[in-house]
């Protein structure tokens, strides 16, 4: 598996798209907490939200332990899509250049080719998790009023949820790439599905007319998205899901298996 | 046995691309796979190289089956040269080395062998077609393969490129490697190959040795103003097996050693002056057309 990952990294490293997308992701990743903090300070200083104490951002413990893990994980999951583009381009390029075919001719089995991409997805997921851990500790220790070890560690399971969320979305992108084989169409369909089709469908299904939230939560993107619920509502409405539910994990694992075995079956069954 | 194919079949829906193919290729032979476009050459090679799933049948490399690990000992190019365009020649070969689990030390020698060493750090996308083809051959040679598979290696090249590639292939063949060469350039196969087979619409319609099929004898055409006398004179010449009167021209079928010079000398001592004398080389092209023509569609 490590040898396969090495091959993938050797393929990626000289590629311009990889460097650009990774740089964008890193810049966003590192700057988001600091930028958000500055924004909140600015809102505070300019009295944008009025005098109501509930709307006072300075008392929102956004970057305080224990809230920081869910808050950062939630913010970061919104830029995961940058990383899925790397997976999509890396996979569809292999079809475009026909290098997937040459890799097999040179001595890869189709399964090894599949595993090499999976190893890349696992590597990226773990790296993203590590980044969250490091940034969380840096930001938390510099902004949080409480830095007791017990508070720091509390809710740290959101780092694991984030790793799974990144892995999940990349597996979704990987499955689509194997299915469609073309970078532009895959990205277009994925973005369209994530931001337009699925929100409309789930909105209708969960809405007052049908009122079936469980079905809505079982759609593929929603299932991955629900691993980390929106935490900020609790500062305004005083209620938000601040834990990772077993039901959400179960649905996500089910979809993940579909992407996992679906991509494998497609790759092995089809001629190259 | 280098390769043994049994009843290999590939269907695309109703279309049978390869039908019940049986073939054996021996070690050390240079095997030409001939056939018109769409005859199933590339489909067959695709199955032998793991990229196309056979509908039925089986094959075995080196008597060891057909696993991916066995392919690591095969050097092969199917259709065009395939590489990552944004990488340099050397970076591309490095990927192949990693897949085949070879040492990087092989890269420079094979690049030298195909004359690309001075361009190894240039991007593949900037290579000319001939250079791309040479890089593909270098890549196929990386593992010091027991068998080299080349599919239309001179396709699309200019005459100079064709000559270069042919020279490389001839050199490799002389080093004793087994080569499977798919081509529709018959004269290429005739020059390089020791054995050949012909595919037509997915079926094997002929298989044989290049020598046995083409070095059967010499054919010479002659004519003069008195063909009757000429025929009579020729009957006394040794080495001639058959004299065929084709009207204006007489066709002589003789031993391999028979030359047109001998014929000319012989008849001139009998007072005959030839006004037509032509040695006919039977080419693979004629043979190929004979084979294809003899089969009913």
What does this structure look like?
- The complex is a heterodimer of chains A (272) and B (297).
- Chain A has 272 residues and is an all-alpha fold.
- Chain A has 13 helices and no strands.
- Chain A has helices at residues 2-12, 16-46, 68-77, 80-96, 99-106, 110-143, 149-153, 157-180, 183-206, 213-217, 220-225, 233-236, 246-269.
- The radius of gyration of chain A is 20 Å and the shape is globular.
- By secondary structure, chain B is an alpha/beta fold.
- Chain B has 2 domains: 3-213, P-loop containing nucleotide triphosphate hydrolases (Rossmann fold, 3-Layer(aba) Sandwich); 217-281, YebC, transcriptional regulation domain (Alpha-Beta Plaits, 2-Layer Sandwich), CATH 3.30.70.
- A 6-stranded mixed beta sheet of chain B has the order 5-6-7-3-8-9, sandwiched between helices.
- Chain A binds chain B through residues 3, 6-7, 10-11, 14-16, 93, 97-99, 101-110, 112, 269, 271-272, and chain B through 46, 49-53, 67-69, 71-72, 74, 76, 78, 80, 82-88, 91, 94-96, 98-101, 139.
Keywords:
heterodimer; A: 272 residues; mainly alpha; globular; B: 297 residues; Rossmann fold; Alpha-Beta Plaits; 6-stranded mixed beta sheet; 11 helices; 34% helix
Question: Which CATH top level class of the largest domain in chain B fits?
Answer: Alpha Beta
Report mean pLDDT of chain B, rounded to a whole number. 86
Cα-based radius of gyration of chain B, to the nearest Å: 24 Å
Number of helices of chain A: 13
As laid out across the biggest beta sheet of chain B, the strand order is 5-6-7-3-8-9
Low-confidence stretches of chain A: none
Integer count of domains of chain B? 2
CATH topology of the largest domain in chain B: Rossmann fold
Task: State the helicity of chain A in percent bands.
Answer: over 70%
What amount of the residues of chain B lies in strands? 25-35%
User: CATH homologous superfamily of the largest domain in chain B?
Assistant: P-loop containing nucleotide triphosphate hydrolases
């Amino acid at each position: 598996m490590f040898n396969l990952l090495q091959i993938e990294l050797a393929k990626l490293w000289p590629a311009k798209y990889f460097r650009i997308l990774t740089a964008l992701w890193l810049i966003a990743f590192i700057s988001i907490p600091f930028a958000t903090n500055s924004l909140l300070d600015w809102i505070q200083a300019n009295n944008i939200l009025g005098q109501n104490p509930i709307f006072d951002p300075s008392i929102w413990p956004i970057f305080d332990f224990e809230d920081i893990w869910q808050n950062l994980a939630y913010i970061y999951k919104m830029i995961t899509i940058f990383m899925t583009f790397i997976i999509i381009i890396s996979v569809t390029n292999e079809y475009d250049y026909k290098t997937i075919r040459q890799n097999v001719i040179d001595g890869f089995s189709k399964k090894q080719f599949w595993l090499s991409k999976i190893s890349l997805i696992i590597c990226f997921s773990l790296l993203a998790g590590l980044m969250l851990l490091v940034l969380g500790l840096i930001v938390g220790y510099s902004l949080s009023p409480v830095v007791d070890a017990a508070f720091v560690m509390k809710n740290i399971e959101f780092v694991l949820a984030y790793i799974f969320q990144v892995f999940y979305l990349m597996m979704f992108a990987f499955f689509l790439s194997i299915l469609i084989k073309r970078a532009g169409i895959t990205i277009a369909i994925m973005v369209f599905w994530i931001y337009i089709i699925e929100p409309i469908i789930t909105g209708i299904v969960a809405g007052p007319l049908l009122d079936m939230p469980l079905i809505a939560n079982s759609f593929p993107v929603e299932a991955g998205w629900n691993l980390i619920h929106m935490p900020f509502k609790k500062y305004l409405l005083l209620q938000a899901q601040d834990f990772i539910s077993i039901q959400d994990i179960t649905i996500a694992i089910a979809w993940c298996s579909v992407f996992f075995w679906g991509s494998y079956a497609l790759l092995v069954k089809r001629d190259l | 046995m280098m390769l043994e194919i049994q009843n290999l079949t590939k269907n695309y829906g109703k279309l049978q691309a390869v039908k019940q193919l049986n073939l054996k290729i021996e070690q050390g032979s240079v095997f030409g796979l001939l056939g018109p476009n769409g005859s199933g050459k590339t489909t067959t090679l695709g199955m032998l190289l793991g990229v196309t799933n056979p509908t039925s049948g089986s094959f075995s490399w080196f008597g060891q089956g057909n696993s991916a690990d066995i392919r690591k000992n095969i050097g092969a190019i199917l259709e065009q040269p395939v590489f990552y365009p944004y990488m340099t020649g050397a970076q591309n070969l490095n990927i192949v080395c990693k897949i085949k689990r070879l040492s990087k030390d092989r890269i420079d020698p094979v690049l030298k062998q195909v004359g690309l060493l001075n361009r190894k750090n240039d991007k593949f996308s900037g290579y000319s077609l001939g250079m791309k083809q040479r890089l593909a051959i270098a890549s196929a040679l990386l593992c010091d393969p027991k068998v080299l598979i080349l599919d239309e290696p001179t396709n699309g090249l200019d005459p100079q490129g064709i000559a270069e590639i042919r020279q490389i292939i001839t050199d490799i063949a002389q080093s004793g490697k087994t080569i499977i060469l798919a081509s529709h350039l018959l004269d290429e196969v005739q020059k390089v190959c020791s054995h050949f087979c012909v595919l037509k619409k997915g079926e094997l319609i002929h298989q044989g040795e290049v020598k046995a099929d083409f070095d059967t004898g010499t054919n010479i055409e002659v004519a003069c103003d008195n063909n009757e006398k000429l025929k009579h004179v020729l009957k006394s010449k040794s080495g001639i097996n058959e004299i065929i009167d084709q009207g204006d021209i007489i066709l002589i079928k003789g031993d391999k050693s028979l030359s047109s010079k001998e014929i000319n000398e012989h008849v001139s001592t009998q007072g005959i002056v030839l006004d037509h004398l032509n040695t006919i080389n039977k080419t693979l092209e004629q043979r190929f057309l004979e084979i294809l023509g003899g089969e009913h569609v």
